[in-house]
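Please review this one.

:::
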Amino acid sequence: MVHFVRMIHSFSRWICWISMFALMGMMLLTSSDVVLRYCGYPIKGTFDMVGLLGTIVIALPIAYTQVLGRHVAMGFLESKGPRWVRTIIKSITCWLGIGVYALIAWQCYLLGAKLLAIGRVSDTIEIPLFPFPYVIAFGCALNGIVLLIDFYKLLATPDAK
């Protein structure tokens, strides 16, 4: 189990790097478009590309953020009461998160399949749209796995925070 946890954490960190490069691409593309637009040569499709890269920037680091424990938490509920109450609250929170992220992943997968079937593309430069809901589904599914690991750790060491 320890090997699996390390593998998921390493993989989460690795795909976070992909989102960082996508963010750098968004910044370079937007900056270049502003400068070139001022010179009279705007980059065609900047709005589409920045929006699509935004899905990568948002969806991929979700799991690594969970690994680091940087998501917003309701600490006032988790810090009050005896240890068994905190464990129950954290367990409920984990399972609610798993359910929500599983639902988002499933619906994004269905959306990606639908976009693939109808052949939908972006408006200006005709980039196929189907991979981007799949990226969101992947990021949410990976976060669900991280939440399962968190739940396992919670049961294995109930007094850990």
Remarks:
- The first helix runs from residue 2 to 39.
- The mean pLDDT is 92.
- Residues 92 and 151 are 9 Å apart (CA to CA).
- DSSP finds six helices and no strands in the chain.
